[in-house]
Specification:
Elements (H helix, E strand, L loop, with lengths): L22 H9 L5 H5 L5 E4 L13 E13 L11 E7 L2 E7 L4 H7 L5 E11 L2 E5 L3 E3 L1 H6 L3 E4 L8 H14 L9 H7 L4 H9 L12 H27 L10 H9 L6 H15 L5 E6 L5 H14 L3 E5 L3 H16 L5 E4 L5 H13 L4 E4 L2 H4 L7 E6 L6 H10 L5 E6 L5 H8 L3 E5 L9 E7 L3 H13 L3 E5 L7 H19 L3 E4 L5 H13 L4 E4 L12 E6 L7 H8 L9 E7 L4 H13 L3 H12 L20 H21 L6 H12 L3 H9 L1
Helix pairs in contact: 7-8, 8-16, 8-23, 8-25, 9-11, 10-11, 16-23, 21-22
The chain binds adenosine-5'-diphosphate and magnesium ion (MG).
Length: 698
């Protein structure tokens, strides 16, 4: 239960002063949900307007905000004959010079009242030099000496939304701040004092009422404090999930090597050192009595699948079953085909379970799973949405897990099987993000690619030269190449994406006839399979696709990928797509077709793609260029978003929070100590309540 002390913060925003039925929906739009007091208190400024400079006119800096003390000399209303666009001018002066104040829409009455001729006033705004004369267009503030005393010299700038004026929002936030209770300190005093971090309440006050611009910077003690609060809350939540996963009785799963050794020998290649090491780590986890929770991270094409297969075989050797869960049906089929072909050589029974099975079929498969006749099952999330009884499920492998989102992971955990869990991801998530998503999961990384891989040549081509791309395609087709042609997400609407892909398909079909196939998300599954199979077998040479091929599809013979509107993709996604080629012996290339103008960042991003194939470098650069909030695919991928912390700025704090959370859980797994109870307040404050429930269930 949420502590009562937090209730004022969880009250609706409309309880704030000045928030009526008109403003409430505007605030909801600003916050992106039904706004509460808390949301406004945590709506932090992104910068400030510094009004501290109070020069005399002669020494005032141009193109900067200044606050001037002036006398009103005269009014110059727009001439009657001129169009309504002419401004109202007010000449003001001090002993050193004159400035013209310019008003476009203000009524003469307002000006007469605020700036009477002969009066002394303070005006604050941006001073410009125009035609040799100093002017201030629409001063932000026109004040008497009395007003000046209440003007914030450093004014916070808040993210706004349409119909919301800065000063209105400023007042609302100020009222929200008043409602923030003084809460018991949940941070460790040593850490806090060492860093000079203010208490929670004081930190919010500093950010909303900065005394100097540096106060609102991400590096300021106040901002760091709040970021750390949020990061610690999320890390505690992850730790509790993990605690829950681990709480299920783990079991020792000891393989004999009887099947795995034969299987490894039957492979057409040798495991890389990285693969062998990852496998050894997994096997050690399986053999240990605790439940395994391990992340296998490896760039596209690094060969995760075979590691997973050998791990699953270990479970089978121990007399248990294994399940491989993948995000799409195309992938499920592909994995099933591969694994059953390999497995057949050593007597493994690998079965596919999808939402498409006919009831009879499904029944038979479920019976075989319950009896243990099936050793390994491959499927989509359908595997776990319906209750499936295994004879003895020992290992669950989740492939391309980022696609499933964090909540589904919880769901899996709550299914409560004692099975060990291996999660695989090809998303080259930067180190900092790994921790936000996976908390303190154990991690194995495949750093190198299998030997013999050829570098992929990447070229950037403007869309106006598309005909050259098509001409190049004709040559590649003559040489027997296999080519992906990717059409992007045109808009939010799946329908128009489809139209783009279908149009391209029609055009290429006209040029290259029967060599072209189309695959997209809305096709019937059977049709998808046929198109994929034709391409995999070489009956088709060009596969026009939407991003359905982004994840995991493995056709080693494919050596060219053309990506249209490359500028619309996130770098991580481009990298995934490019990873569809360069998997075989042939020299591969990737053609990024873009539509300009790109802008500086856009250009830099595509250059990164051209210059490196290293997924981790790409991810780091992406983070650098776009900032963490913008990392495309972040939302789809289920990565958590923070409201206060910024991973591009607070990455080091994340590592620290993770470590501290682990320590807290080791000492006080139920958060029952004095500090533990205060930390529960923190969890509620940042809405990690689910974690508190897990603790209770613990
Ligand atoms: P990903 O990590 O992207 O899932 P895959 O498991 O699909 O990569 O492997 C990519 C390709 O590399 C597959 O065709 C696979 O058979 C092959 N492969 C995997 N391991 C090796 C290896 N050690 N040597 C050579 N080829 C390998
Ligand atoms: Mg894969």
């Amino acid at each position: 239960m949420r502590p009562d002390s937090l209730n004022p913060l969880f009250a609706a925003a409309k309880t704030l002063k000045g928030v009526g039925p008109k403003l409430a929906p505007t605030l909801d739009r600003l916050i992106g949900r039904d706004a509460r007091v808390l949301d406004l208190a945590l709506h932090l400024p992104t910068g400030v307007i510094d009004r501290r400079a109070r020069p005399r006119v002669v020494e005032a800096a141009r193109d900067q905000v200044v606050t001037l003390e002036v006398r009103v000399v005269n009014h110059q209303p727009p001439a009657q004959s001129r169009s309504g666009k002419a401004p109202f001018r007010v000449l003001v002066e001090d002993d050193t010079g004159t400035v013209t104040l310019i008003f476009f829409h203000n009524s003469a009455a307002w000006i007469g009242k605020m700036l009477p001729v002969g009066a002394t006033r303070w005006v604050s705004g941006r001073l410009e030099l125009w035609d040799g004369h100093l002017q201030m267009v629409h001063p932000d503030r026109v004040m008497t000496a009395e007003d000046l005393a209440t003007m914030p010299a450093v004014e916070p700038i808040y993210p706004l939304t349409e119909g919301l004026f800065p000063r209105v929002l400023g007042r609302i936030v100020a009222d929200a701040l008043v409602r923030v209770p003084v809460l018991p300190e949940w941070q460790d005093d040593n850490r806090r004092i060492l860093r000079g971090w203010p208490e929670f309440h004081a930190a919010l006050a500093t950010l909303h009422r900065p005394a100097k611009p540096a106060d609102v910077e991400p590096t300021s003690p106040a901002h760091q404090r709040l970021a750390y609060d949020e990061l610690l809350a999320s890390q505690l939540a992850l730790a509790s999930v993990r605690g829950r996963l681990r709480a299920g009785d783990g079991r020792r799963t000891l393989g004999t090597g009887a099947i795995a050794d034969r299987l490894e020998a039957a492979l057409s290649f040798r495991l890389t050192d990285g693969q062998a090491q990852a496998l050894a780590e997994i096997r050690a986890d399986l053999a240990a009595p605790e439940r395994m929770l391990r992340l296998l991270q490896g760039d596209v094409g690094s060969g995760k699948t075979v590691v997973a297969l050998l791990a699953m075989v270990t479970a089978v050797e121990a007399g248990r079953q294994a399940a491989l869960m993948v995000p799409t049906e195309i992938l499920a089929r592909q994995h099933h085909e591969r694994l059953s072909a390999l497995g057949a050589t050593v007597g493994l029974v690998v079965e596919l379970v999808t939402g498409r099975d006919r009831p009879k079929e499904r029944e038979a498969k479920l019976a075989a799973l319950a009896s243990g006749a099936i050793h390994i099952v491959v499927g989509t999330h359908a595997l776990f949405t319906d209750p499936i009884a295994f004879r003895d499920l020992g290992l669950v492998v989740v492939d391309e897990q980022h696609r499933f989102g964090v909540n589904q992971r919880l769901l899996l955990a709550e299914k409560g099987t004692a099975a060990d869990m291996l999660v695989m991801t090809a998303t080259p998530i930067p180190r900092t993000l790994v921790m936000t998503v996976f908390g303190d999961m154990d991690v194995s990384i495949l750093r190198e690619k299998p030997a013999g891989r050829q570098p992929i040549t990447t070229v950037l081509i403007g869309a106006e030269r598309l005909d050259q791309v098509v001409a190049g395609l004709a040559r590649a087709i003559r040489d027997g190449a296999r080519i992906y042609w990717v059409c992007p997400l045109v808009s939010e609407s799946e329908h128009s994406d489809l139209v783009a892909a279908e149009d391209r398909y029609a055009a290429l079909r006209e040029a290259f006839g029967d060599a072209v196939r189309l695959v997209h998300g809305q096709m019937k599954a059977v049709e998808k399979d046929v198109a994929m199979a034709d391409f995999a077998a070489g009956r088709a040479q060009v596969l026009v696709a939407t991003t359905v091929i982004e994840v995991g599809v493995d056709v080693p013979e494919a050596s060219v990928i053309v990506i249209e509107h490359a500028e619309r993709f996130g770098l991580a996604q481009l990298h995934q797509l490019r990873g569809r080629v360069g998997r075989g012996a042939a020299k591969s290339s990737c053609v990024l077709v873009y539509r300009g103008p790109l802008g500086e960042t856009g250009e830099a991003r595509l250059r990164v793609m051209r210059d490196t194939e290293d997924g981790f470098v790409i991810a780091e650069k992406d983070l650098e260029l776009r900032g963490e909030g913008e990392l495309i695919g972040t939302r789809q991928s289920g990565l958590p978003t923070y409201r206060v912390a910024r991973l591009d700025q607070h990455g080091a704090l994340l590592a620290e929070a993770r470590e501290e959370a682990a320590g807290i859980f080791a000492d006080d797994p139920q958060l029952a100590s004095d500090r533990g109870v205060r930390l529960r307040t923190l969890l509620y404050l940042f809405e990690r309540d689910a974690a508190v429930r897990l603790l209770a269930a613990g």
